[in-house]
């Protein structure tokens, strides 16, 4: 395997000159730069990226930690984050935490050891305060990590407000909300809070169920139990389109006609929401803009700029055939 010394010898320059070319440091004439690149090509020389990052104190790599990249919402978000980062000259290391505290901590430490320039944290276990440092560039994605770590999210309260009011305006008399785990302090909990506030203020009977596992079949079991315990439910607002899709499946299987017998509103507006039968009414998160803003806030931190701690993007209610 060729070394930097081999490149210097073939190019007829010093090792220091080759290093300056690789790290784009100082003045190098075009002719000298061409000699170095030609020698690298001839020798099939691959620079040591870790060594270069230590020299430059910048790796042009960021970490992205998510609960589950196979989840459609996080898959779309990852696609946008990777695209925007790549356009800016950065690569992305993607880590699946599966909401495992030990695994999440291990990934954070691994990313720091590998000299990443910053981390976008989309996963959040109950306590992360012992290993997240505000001195290191970090952006939380739809999560609260601490009072001094910036986060990017959508207007969750307004989303829950619009969804719940829609169900009631459509004539629902007994409504249910299926939330994520409420013991984890996330902006998404405001969807639940808005649901409770609206249902209470409008004197409509309501039920709240927590969906603990991010598994489609577990969502279906929860909704079957909900229908058995409360057969008179006529409206459901779910905290994600995946849970809403499970509700549509179960409603069809037990003979509830949508939207005549039961109305359903999801959250996210992931790509397949409009292709479900019937097409899903949902609260649209600006997934593309959230990815772009997360990258921008992280890069601003890396460059030492001041950033806003709260970065909240607007949502939109998209009404389709489930209401």
TrEMBL record:
Q: Write down the Pfam families for this protein, in alphabetical order.
A: LacI, Peripla_BP_3
**Residue ranges of every copy of the HTH lacI-type domain listed in the record:** 2-56
Residue ranges annotated for the HTH cro/C1-type domain, each copy included: 3-46
GO terms, molecular function: DNA binding
Q: Where are the transmembrane segments?
A: none
Protein keywords = DNA-binding, Repressor, Transcription, Transcription regulation
The keyword Secreted is assigned to this record? no
Q: Which SUPFAM superfamilies match?
A: lambda repressor-like DNA-binding domains, Periplasmic binding protein-like I
What's this protein's name? LacI family DNA-binding transcriptional regulator
- Organism encoding this protein: Defluviitalea saccharophila
